[in-house]
Write a structure and sequence with these properties.
single chain; 373 residues; alpha+beta; 2 domains; 16 strands; 20% strand; globular
């Protein structure tokens, strides 16, 4: 099983400048390739393979206007073009929407490093055209790496590499756990485990309040420094925006850590099967009253972590089909209550069952008919 290992980098100031050059070049190459595909499609032509685009870029690099592309590794632009072509192919096949162009302000700063040229020493890693960079911990030596990526999270630089790992399969119980995700509680399990909504804690609320105040302050400063239709970015605005980025990072880390703790606690019970709903998160986000709460819960991330952790320990992971009535079905007699509203937090059935609706849903998932057992 290939698992990613993410390790913090400690570059010097000169190395950080080179890292930013690689990030900018990767973003430019991605947008250039995507624009070429779009213009080609408008003219009624077929999909351009990434090999053709890479040849075009090589010819472009030889012109004086694009000599700056030689300042970074050619593998950075090569992989960026591949990524753009893969995203565009998914759009053509109907698997995704038209890919967005990468923004200098909003897109995650990252780029690819060739696996063959990735060298590792004790607390050091060699990045192409950057040099040997110190790492906060040792990257495993003597193993094959897959898809090395360097990224920046608004505070620190990281390298993530996929490493093939083998794990001892623990002896599993016969228990089947159904997990119902929600807004009131993050997850309610059929075995009685309940994981709270971390967004209701004091720490998140205080951090969110501070974030809103900083955003309001930045907005006021932009208005104060407005020159016609142009906004002037002062040094104070830059400082405040950096603080805002750090708060966003902190909130994201708190939520991700909570999800890791919850998913770890579930797999440590060593069930034979885990069943979850195949949630239409993008559809749920269209509800303007709940979209923020749903987004903060990170349902997709929870499901992703459960999938790979179940695979890691040999636990069977099942997704119940999207329209399975887990909330409306009585876990005792099987009757489906069609008039159940979202505001009904307690499930009451004619058979006498009276139960929290999330707990009832988790029990239904645990007895899901689609299980291959």
């Amino acid at each position: 099983m290939i698992l990613a290992k993410k390790i913090r980098l400690r570059p010097t100031r000169e190395q950080e400048e080179q890292l930013w050059k690689s990030v900018g070049t990767a973003r430019w190459a991605y947008n250039w390739a995507l624009n070429r595909q779009r213009e080609n499609f408008k003219q009624g032509n077929k999909f351009i393979p990434n090999t053709i685009l890479r040849k075009e870029l090589t010819e472009l690099k030889q012109t004086e206007a694009f000599n700056w592309l030689y300042e970074v590794s050619n593998n950075v632009t090569k992989q960026a073009i591949k990524d753009a072509c893969n995203a565009y192919q998914r759009f053509l096949k109907g698997k995704a929407k038209f890919p967005k162009f990468k923004s200098r302000k909003k897109s995650k700063p990252s780029f690819y490093n060739d696996t063959g040229k990735l060298k590792v020493k004790k607390n050091l890693v060699l990045i192409e055209k950057v040099g040997w960079i110190k790492t906060s911990e040792q990257i495993p030596i003597g193993v094959s790496y897959t898809n090395p990526r360097i990224s920046f999270d608004n505070k620190y630089w990281y390298i993530s590499v996929g490493i093939e790992q083998e794990f001892e399969q623990p002896e599993l119980t016969d228990e089947i756990i159904g997990i119902d995700l929600g807004i009131k509680e993050l997850a309610v399990c059929s075995n009685g485990q309940v994981f709270k909504n971390i967004n209701k804690t004091e720490e998140i609320r205080k951090t969110g309040k501070r974030l809103r105040r900083l955003q309001q302050s930045v907005s006021r400063k932009y208005e104060m420094n407005r020159e016609g239709d142009r906004f002037v970015k002062t040094s104070n605005i830059i400082k405040l925006e950096k603080q805002i980025q750090h708060l966003h990072r902190r909130l994201s880390n708190i939520r991700n850590n909570h999800i890791h703790q919850a998913t770890n606690a579930i797999v440590k019970t060593k069930p034979s099967d885990v069943v979850m709903e195949d949630l239409n998160v993008s559809g749920m986000m269209k509800n303007r009253h709940l979209s923020k709460a749903i987004g903060n819960q990170k349902f997709h991330e929870f499901i992703r972590q459960m999938e790979y952790k179940c695979e890691k320990y040999g636990i069977e992971f099942t997704k119940a089909y999207r329209f399975y009535p887990s909330s409306k079905k009585c876990s005792s007699c099987g009757t489906i209550k069609k008039d159940l509203k979202l505001s009904d937090r307690v499930f009451s059935c004619e058979c006498g069952l009276k139960l929290d609706r999330d707990r009832n849903a988790s029990l239904n998932l645990a007895s899901y008919e689609g299980l291959t057992v």
